[in-house]
Amino acid sequence: MLAADQKSQEVILLGCESVGKTTFFRQLTGKENAVSSYVKGSTVEIISASVQGTNLVLVDAPGLRVEGDAYSMQLTLEHANQASSMILFVSSASLKQELNMLENLLPLRGRKTVLIVTHTDRYMPAQEERRYIENLLHIPVFWKDTRQAMGQQELLQAMETAEVWRVPKSVLSFLPEAKNPPPSLLYPFTIPVVGKLLALMFCLAIFAVPVFTAYFLASWLQPLAESYILNPLTEALSNLPVLLSVLLVGDYGLLTLGSYSFIWAFPVIALVAVATVLTEESGMQEHITHALDGWLRKIGLTGRDLVPVLTGFGCNVVAVLQSRSCSVCSRGACVSLISFGSACSYQIGATLSLFGAAGKPILFLPYLVALFIVGAIHTRIWNKQAAPQLERRAPLQYVQKPDMASTAARIKGVVRQFVLQAMPIFLLICIAASLLQFTPLFQWLTVMLQPFLQVLHLPSDTVEGIVFSFIRKDGLLVLNQNGGVLIGSLSTAQIFLLVYLASTLSSCVVTLYTIAREFSVKHASSLFAKQALTSVASTVGLAVILYTIF
Q: Where would I find the H helices in 19-151?
């Protein structure tokens, strides 16, 4: 009997998208990588964690929607079929509609069930109405503002009093209709044409503002770092044995070139994370994607597919995984656009560093616009179907004050990933580049790529940046050798073409591996070939335009 009491009880959290399941999960388990978000489809895999001090194991599943054949939704349905205990989440403003939907989609009958009604800060029914709903359903019902944490004892009591779901479908028709209208699209975004342009400008601003802020910060930090740290270290270590000197303070040295990654990339990564997380947590991202839905359908996507694309500006790998929430019809097109047009935060940091070293930071704006435009053309060419037949746009979320705890947790996760994963990998790239100077590899690659580089009027020394960008997009920073002498010698057209080509010719190795794992090796190979073809063709086209202008 004692062993039976101590056995873990698994409870699955189920509900529509953006109803507060993940916030609830994080509050009770303390699992920081399960952060809340008002963006639809933010949970794309099954996550489980125990509630400390109890025998409960909570399972957070991707949200459900009325229409859709997404991988994440199928994953939820499969796990729901195996569950014996569940907590249902519905929004107070649409309780009747969502409960009917869950009853249609899920195997509720015969399973111990608790109902949590969220967003009560937006709409709280009268006490008589709440009592009527509880008596009608015959299961424990908790009325919660999702951001108010549920205590462990309250959760234990809820599961102890959980009742088996026996509610006939016909009874749900007697549930009262919500008197609070669902949120509507923000007024500026409803203006014909102008609204879409405003949404697009807002989208660009999410990245442009933090990037230029980071540029000014890095421009201020770099001279200080060079004067007080890097130059003294370079002089002190220059008399070391040749190999050690090359590894530490050579053209690609850990201290000389490695410092560029931190000084230029870290501010970008941190500030872009702040901008994107605040946009998601406030609910603004949902309104932006909703406003752009009509334009996106012309290239084979829906508004909701823009969410993973925007996530890709933080990390392409996470974005590919988040595309699980896309429809099967549009997921391939979404991943194609992520691979080509979503410049991850490391790529943005490296790009800004190169433009800054060349004294032309303003090039970042046309670079970002080129990624958007060519990425859209690339997606439309290789994914010919438009998407009017895909699922209807989901209801909007409320725009509200971001949850500071969730925001801080997500930004902390980004910083930790940079320090523990990104920086070590880039330092390995520095070591590899330093050692490869003693081999003829770069000479061979230069000979192979020389004809194409001549067409673009690019010097042969730029091969290293193109090669290392295949490994990681911040591999572009190897072009900052000798304190940016090479980059500073290039013209405006040359620096733009070089950065554009290196960042679009292929996605990084880790992203390609993730695509192969999510789809197949054949799909990843096909996507690689199509992207390379688009990149080369568009680079040549841009070269004609730029060399005509400059």
A: 21-29, 71-82, 95-105, 127-137
The lowest-confidence range among 97-101, 102-106, 386-390, 407-411 is 386-390
Q: Are strands 56-60 and 85-91 parallel, antiparallel or unpaired?
A: unpaired
Query: Alpha carbon 123 to chain centroid distance?
Result: 31
Give the H/E segment covering residue 527.
helix 521-549
Integer Rg of the chain from CA:
26
pLDDT exceeds 50 at position 2: no
Amino acid identity, position 410: R
Cβ atoms 511, 317 nearer than 8 A: yes
Whose tokens are 């040295």? That residue is: 253
Give the model's confidence band at 483: pLDDT under 50 very low, under 70 low, under 90 confident, else very high: low
pLDDT band at 367 (very low <50, low <70, confident <90, very high): very high
- pLDDT tens figures, 60-91: 888 887 655 566 778 888 888 888 899 999 98
How far apart are the C-alpha atoms of 304 and 70, rounded to whole Å? 12
Q: How far apart are CA 520 and CA 514, in angstroms?
A: 9
Longest Cα pair distance anywhere in the chain, in angstroms? Answer: 85
- What is the tens place of the pLDDT at every residue in 289-309? 888 888 888 888 887 788 888
Task: Look at the chain and count its residues.
Answer: 550
Are 425 and 472 in contact, with CB atoms under 8 Å apart? Answer: yes
CB–CB of 534/381 below 8 Å? yes
SS3 of 332, please?
helix
